[in-house]
Amino acid sequence: MTTQRLTRTYLAVPAHRARLVQNAAASSADAVFMDLEDAVPPAEKAAALDAAAAALTTHDWGTKTVAVRLNAIDSPSIQAEIKRLGGIRRLDAFIIPKAEVVADITKISRWIMDAAGPRDAPVEMELLIETARGLVNVEALAAADGLVTALHLGVGDFAASIGARSAEIGASPAGYRHVGNAAEGHPQVPLDLFAYPMMRLLVAARAFGLRAIDGPCGAFRDAVATSSTAVKAAAMGYDGKQVIHPSQIEATRDAFVPSAEELAYAERAIAALEEAERNGQGAVTVDGKMVDHANIRMVRRLMSFKGRD
């Protein structure tokens, strides 16, 4: 796996919309992916590919991770897209939509290697898990190829794939709730449609040393929904979340950045354990809680998200 990337906020932008691409390059997002797939009408596909190639070579992307979401694995254009873009040094990753079958990922890897040209290393692959079949095969997909460095959850298409009755991307259906018994007045508890796919994807990513990226909150004008879904993903252990509008960047990033209190505790815990080890102890009490090396591994990971503000 390559050096771990900081991808707390992953901004999606249609490749053929030049102004939006330019704004994305100048944004505060950690990562950007230019889309050649769902966000581009069929008549604009060729123009989108030309625009993506131009943007990669002309815009100042700073320290961002820059990716391109290719068209579907069975599309007639995917190999040409890889050939056109795969040798451009500023491109970090291809996002592979509707990843389902290991053989497809292996084939795409060969195309990427063939297109690498003068690059120091070939373009990475980030797999978009957005179907029932993809989730069933997610562990095998995570281990499919050395170019795979991240898994993304495609929340909209996944909901459609399983037949969920929801029209809002990233939100659970209103009817998906537990209803209690009559004696208690039938209390209702909303349930999370994405709890299982999020956890399964996360475990697969961790098992094979990959980053895990949550799908977007479609209600981009809803600050509460944007923030709460990002907080959930960060709390679970995800590395970042897709955003579909620049207005979501700050709230999403804030969900992944540790607070001053968390960082202060992390520093106290590390210092206390180091002192304990000097005294021949493998654990210590900090703020009334036991701290050992497992805790230190958790707080060091938390500290890694601070990155650039």
TrEMBL record:
Keyword Magnesium: yes
BP terms from Gene Ontology: oxaloacetate metabolic process
Domain HpcH/HpaI aldolase/citrate lyase intervals: 9-246
Keywords: Lyase, Magnesium, Metal-binding
Cofactor: Mg(2+)
MF terms (GO), sorted A to Z: lyase activity; magnesium ion binding
InterPro entries assigned: Aldolase/citrate-lyase_domain, Citrate_lyase_beta/mcl1/mcl2, Pyrv/PenolPyrv_kinase-like_dom, Pyrv_kinase-like_dom_sf
Positions annotated to bind substrate: 69, 130
A Pfam family recorded for this sequence: HpcH_HpaI
SUPFAM superfamilies: Phosphoenolpyruvate/pyruvate domain (SSF51621)
Binding sites annotated in the UniProt record for Mg(2+): 130, 157
The family this protein is said to belong to: Belongs to the HpcH/HpaI aldolase family.
The protein, known as: Beta-methylmalyl-CoA/L-malyl-CoA lyase
Origin species: Bradyrhizobium canariense
Source species taxonomy: Bacteria, Pseudomonadati, Pseudomonadota, Alphaproteobacteria, Hyphomicrobiales
